[in-house]
What does this fold into?
Amino acid sequence: MTSGFKYSDTNKRYHTYGYYIRKRFGRRVFRAAMDIGAGCPNRCGECGCGGCLFCSDGSIPRGRFTGIPSEQLDEIYAKACEATGLKAEGAPFIPYLQAGSNTYGDIKAFEAVYRRLLSFQNAVGLCVATRADCIDEAYADLFAELSEKTYLTVELGLQTIYDETALACGRGHDLSRFMQGYELLQSRGVNVGVHIINGLPNETADMMRGTARFVGKLRPHCVKIHNLYFETDTAISEMLMRGEVRAMELDEYVGIICDQIELMPPETVIARLTGDADRRKIIAPEWSLHKLPVLNEIDKELARRGSFQGDKYGK
Ligand code: SF4
It folds into this structure.
């Protein structure tokens, strides 16, 4: 059964990453998440120490990236591909530099990593996660050049548009700085992904909808949205233990996510609606361990409303 949504050939009422990839490549392509040892200005004292409240590695200081031996990078890539569970020779992958801020450091060192990853026969694109305050003209020019040759996405952590929340979470930069980085990329035609987190401390449902409304109007290539989850050894988990924050309930999350999907333009790809935390580390909420039931609830709620992605875009 198809939903009738323009960018779907299943029951989905929103533009899934899986659909986008199948249309673009004619088959499934997995993203291979990798940690090449990139640092973060928010973990080495440049704009903060200890990282964002929810950062699982925040207590491990990591400075500017200076490079990685190619044999080590090859090994990391091979392991990341294997971890997807698809080990078939020649299966296409998109290397995903997920951990840390993958533009924080020597641009030549990062450029060597990007180009080496793209040189692998089965790499059909590249996804680079970073912070907007680590994007300057030189990085934006490099990404524009790479975008002409491959399917490149630069994923920027925004989490929220509200500076008071960002400050409380220790994000280390404000919305105007986010917009500078975003526009450097967008103006050059680089695909930008925006990462949003629902349920941050003191955020109301209206604020979460406000973030989605704002991001939708930016017309990003894709968005990744998930709830705030609590992992062991994070500052936010200590706040949970002290009763200073709470975990969202599933029905609350589903309602807000559906509102946010309605606020996104139809062409924006919804790269994720659930978190991808390490299952062994999650303390709460329990429901976030089970992604499929969460996605099913979102499908059911959109069907109940009779609504699709984009129905409230611009409103
Ligand atoms: S920006 Fe990312 S890597 Fe840096 S502290 Fe925040 S969550 Fe951690």
The mean pLDDT is 94. Residues 40, 42-43, 51-52, 55, 58, 100-101, 131, 157 surround iron/sulfur cluster (CB under 6 Å). The chain has one domain: 17-305. The CA atoms of residues 133 and 196 lie 16 Å apart.
